[in-house]
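Exercise (ungraded).
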Amino acid sequence: MLFMGRQRIRDIRHDELITATITAVHKRGYAAVTMTEIAQEVGTTAASINYYFGTKENLMEATMLRLLNLLKTAMLERYATAQTPRDRLIAVLDANFDDRFYTVAHCNFWMQFWASAPYTDSLARLHRINRARVTSHFRAELRSLVPHERREALREALQCYMDGVWLEAAQSTAPLNAAHAREEARYVAGLLLKNSD
Amino acid sequence: MLFMGRQRIRDIRHDELITATITAVHKRGYAAVTMTEIAQEVGTTAASINYYFGTKENLMEATMLRLLNLLKTAMLERYATAQTPRDRLIAVLDANFDDRFYTVAHCNFWMQFWASAPYTDSLARLHRINRARVTSHFRAELRSLVPHERREALREALQCYMDGVWLEAAQSTAPLNAAHAREEARYVAGLLLKNSD
DNA sequence: AAAACTTGAATGATCATTTAAAAAACTATT
DNA sequence: AATAGTTTTTTAAATGATCATTCAAGTTTT
């Protein structure tokens, strides 16, 4: 309890501020949002954010880390019950359109992060790592599903499709329908794989 | 000649500065790039940009307009010689991966513009107009190629795929291979349409 | 000579970040 | 369970840096 007590406020603030960052970036844009605006989302001050995160860049990094972990969790959950290679491919697709993850605010933050990642070392690193992870999952699952010559082309097509869906989701004015996105993704994957051999 | 002369320098600067904007945004990022950096790309000063474009926002808008026009031109050229609906669909796809258009710097500017468009009225307008145009082209060509029930799903899939390819291209460190991108796009479109009925 | 163009030096606004001092939460002791 | 001491948290105000934009005085072109 002693230790827990020490950590509690810090953890609460950490979560609050990351949530506030996603909301504020969605409202005002990654480039335009100020520390004060983020702070106001949860009724605190910019100085407080610096107390907990040090810099704006760290805050953005921590926010992106939360999204990456959300994606990873969604993926591992589905992986745990997948039996066949096809199941596992669908697990990867579905994870990307998980209810908890596939929201306008999340896709929007992701898109804006993506656009500015190349210009900030710490963000570029996160981006690279995640990209490599998704790619290797796709490669592994496609190995036993499509012939060797077409594998990379199909993997790229699938990844581009998914990125494109997020991009569109990021601009949406209405709430997203994650279940529908999963169906569409399966349909598209089905078409791409059906004739690939 | 008088009139031409009057316009010449203005036109040259206009072109130079738009090119400089694309390069500088690629180097430094849409959010981080300064007027001075853009000016330095062509050895002039920030004040000069303001003389010609008034504001940074106008400059960005003009830059995006050039890309939009490049895309439109590439499309119309190919449309002119397309005979069948299938030809016209391929024309739309190929235009998006035209040699003049599909470069890292262009895709990068496009991506960054895309991410920040929702937060600036004039840019949002451009974005909306372009999006509507591409969508209506796809709808028109798919009308006679795929059954009614699947048309929207396939159109969305194709558009998302193309957006995703741009997104990846924007991050590339090597020069792009536009011809290869066109081939891939045809291959993907082929798979999507083949089994859709 | 007039118009168009250029630029170095202000201007003024906006921000992230730091500081210092106060408030709150927690711990240990009695 | 009250209290004094310690650490953690909060914030208003200062700091300092960065920029887009404007200005005014030049230069070049027509």
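Further reading is listed at the end of the chapter. For now, observe: Chain B has a mean pLDDT of 94. Chain B has two domains: 1-54, 64-194.
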